[in-house]
Structure of Multidrug ABC transporter substrate-binding protein:
Amino acid sequence: MKVLLSVKTTYSALSAHWSRSFLTILGIIIGISALMLISSLGKGAQNLILSQIQTLGSKTIAVVPGREPKGPTDHAVVESFYGNSLKERELASLQKKSNVPKVSDVMPLVFGIETASRDKETFRPMVIGASHLISKIFNLVPQTGTFFTDDDVAGRSSAAIIGIKVKEELFGESDALGEKIKINDRNYRIVGVLPKKGQVLFFNFDEAVIVPYTTAQTYIFGIKYFHRIIVQTETEDDVPFAVRDIEATLRSLHGITDPEDDDFFVGTQAEISETFTTVTDILTVFLAAVSAISLVVGGIGIMNIMLVSVTERTSEVGLRKALGATEKNILFQFLLESFTLTTAGGIAGIIMGTVFSFASATIITSLTDLDWKFAFPMTAALVGIIISGAIGLLFGIYPAWKASRKNPIEALGYE
């Protein structure tokens, strides 16, 4: 009965000053909304990246130059794009079945952003140098035309396959097949046009130009090494054995006896997924912690307004004590009001954050080619409710204690 009375009193007290109550919990609403938005975007980004990684297939292995990064801030992440430890002899060694019996396909990759032009039209695509195996490994089937062949690779031919975005930017509605584009003052003949493919890991194939890797090395990038060597096995079960053989082959070739001295690293789909998950989780937690600062500010606001409320209702406290209310009853009453305020703010923040998150996912999808899906962060919602309620109790305890300690005689005489 006393609890029901406290609930009714809480409703009356808060609804009597609804505008003040709203302004009081605004910091809580903003903080929880930010927590929800950041968590949702982080989860959405993580899901997008993992889905792109999974398109490579669980049988795909990436051999990367440079040492293995130990974390997201390790300079090795940057060095891996400029290392030159993977060259023709490394490629030849990995193509020998006796060295890596579990490997079925080996493909070198070089890539970089370059300017492509046709007449007065220009575009800056990602130029990818690869062998014909790129069509198999990345599941690329030209919409029109075909892929270049091993003979094109051996002869450093000027054959090129372009993404649909490149075609639209340089050729518009006209047919691009058989036409030419210019990259670094050299003409390339279009032998194939890809359908809309979108982003696959680091490559947006809609905005890509694919040429033989020998051509890219010689005429576009001017390098004699590879940025990556992509390897595939026949089955998923073969992956651990292939990784072991790749590492042993390259260490033998480079005269490395201590794995700590490796000038390359081998990444599987599972390892790449785990790395990205860890990085996105760390960033999400960090950004969410920053957004929690507004919750502390909101908590201080709660304490301030509850102290004002205690002062304004001194006579009420005195009357309730005179009628038999105990200190525990008064303490519970004001704690309930504080808890109700912040919990209501938390619920409002979750609703607002969900709306903002859904709107953000919709905007990202409409403005980009990314298949960004809305992700409701259930954990963040539960944490938000718990934190908002805890803030109400933490910052409401002092005002509630102060109210419960008032002398009823002095309180009744308060003007």
Residues 86-262 form one domain. The longest strand covers residues 103-113. The mean pLDDT is 83.
